[in-house]
Amino acid sequence: MSVWGKSAFAVAIGFKADMACCSAAVFGVHPLRDRTIGTLLAVRRSLYMPQHENADRARAERIFKAREQQRAEAPKATADYYAAQQRIRDRTQELRRLRLAREAQEKARAG
Known about the structure:
Elements: E1 2-3, E2 6-7, H1 8-19, H2 24-27, H3 31-110
Antiparallel strand pairs: 1-2
Helix pairs in contact: 1-3
């Protein structure tokens, strides 16, 4: 049955609210059937929407936990970075000292 070219489904999802005061005989709308369809649609929406919300929430929690872990590990990572830089500077200084000593020794032999 249709109401002004609208299906019972269209009536159930919103059009019936406008026609609630009108007679069922005039428009061919059955209030119990339309309420049932509306209830079924609401149940369907409640069944399917939380899956998306749960997926979004799980993603947000994963991102949050990853960022919290990065924040917790940041001081150690920074300290490791600076320690590595210091080891490089120390090794470079040692190699320079050895090179200069070798060059001085070669210069002493030659001259």
